[in-house]
Amino acid sequence: MKIKPVFAGIAVLGALLLVLSLTTIAKVFAANPRDLLAGVKTQPQAVQLLPKRSPLFVSFLANPEKLGLFTQLAAKPSDRGDVRHELANLKQQLQQNWLLDYERDIQPWLDQEITLAVTDVDLDHQSANGLQIGYLLALKAKDVDLAKTTIDAFWQELAVNGSDLGFEQYQGVSILNTSFAENRPAIAGTILDKFVLFANDVRVLRQAIDDLKDPSLALPSLEHYRDRLAQINKGKIAVAYANLGELGEDLPQASLLMSLGLDKAGIRAKTLWHEERSPQSVADVTEPNASAPSSLSKPATKPSSKSSTNIATALPSGNAVIIGKNLGETLKGFQTSLPPEWLKVITKAIAPIPLNQDAVAWAQDDFAITLFPQRNAQPTITPDWLLVAKVNDAKASATAIASLDDLARKQLTVGEITLKNQPVTVWTKLSASLNTSSGSPNNADVSGQVVAVHAQTSNYIYLSNSLPSLELALTLKNNQAIASSQNFKTITAKLPRDYKAYGYLAQKVNLDWLETISSDIKIQEISSKISHSPLASIFKHIEMVGFASNSIPNNIENSELFVNLN
């Protein structure tokens, strides 16, 4: 499993939901609109106008008028006012950003595709003068002549209202443009083939014309894009693409293609992640003295390549869960996918357990990791976590985790206690303070902080940073397991059955604790930006998220996400 594509998929999905307006779409699902639920088989055509290095695009393949009309019919009478308000907000955003009146300028001729793209993060590729991002809005016309008449009237109105219009011919194509003061957007536009195009810079439209005339310059000429596109040929209403290598130097040289479909209970997404993989040294991402020796014993087992959610019966309910196969291979995936600053955060969060394969040699079969809700009194403390790993060979597993104890002894005190008649190994960080109240300088108080605990039963090995969490797992009753949770059942029922890894994320997961262990990731800054952005209104409608991840040939990671809406 690779966490990077999953998180990237969720991020792009958030952007998609923002454009669609989740509040509006959510009201459609309950009415079971078969045409929308079935999706379309058509692929985005405006991609032929985008350069190969385009960092991002989102294509919607359903007519917004049809969607809006059905939304009005599907909504409860008491909710229709809210629906109309959300639709009005979307149209207002279109007018603010592109000066386009939807009913007047677009609706009469619009077909089944709207594509919004970032064509370049810096149009002149000169960092000294700042980033000049290129944006393209492509609207497919079902009646090109009507579109031309309508858009000509749009430009004429701008001219009548005092805008200075510019005109140029580029390779036989007419381009109009106008610019305003700093607080108004610059706009350039043309009609190319069956698409009405608007951009924030004439250079974007010139590039689109070049791409159409020479397909080798366009995004569809990339083989890995075409291969993945063929795998999302049905059941969708939107397609999104992100080229992370173009979005930032610190991001992996990878790209994500995703389809978005509708379900009666929420939103379904399929992601296909392609990465040019290169080996990465573990030493670059672990803390000093945190690497485990290569001599750690490994159970001699050869588990199957697919994981099973059956291990959830041994897992207490938490608000974030990952289920997978072979934790060592999962960690290897981390080290080739996640940026170094995120690897450092993970290393600090699980310290002193090293972030490498040898340290988890006892978790080569099914495993599950859960995060528990944080204590309200100390929301910035690292949350309690629990790792459960299936035992196939009891002796080999015991030997492997004993080697991990040997490694811990270099930094901590390792001892054993009995908990509910179960032997438990405890890693403790001892500290001492002088006690002068007795009048004797030789008296000292010794206290210990539990760093990690683990226990082994006939079926599982449990490892946690919390003794209460371990006790909860050891005394778990069937109805207390996350497998018995209706939310977990609902989300996993929407996911494939034969994938390598699964995940579950509840609505409210506090990440403030990341700020306390990281100076590289500005969690509070990011959180503040999100909370004050339109994304905040989306997140409040998300009840839970589930994902399944799987590897397929040609360095492609295949994942499916399901977002359940409240």
UniProtKB/TrEMBL annotation:
It holds the Pfam family DUF3352. It comes from the Bacteria. Residues 290-309 have a biased composition (Low complexity). InterPro entries: DUF3352 (IPR021787). Residues 277-311 are annotated as: Disordered. This is DUF3352 domain-containing protein.
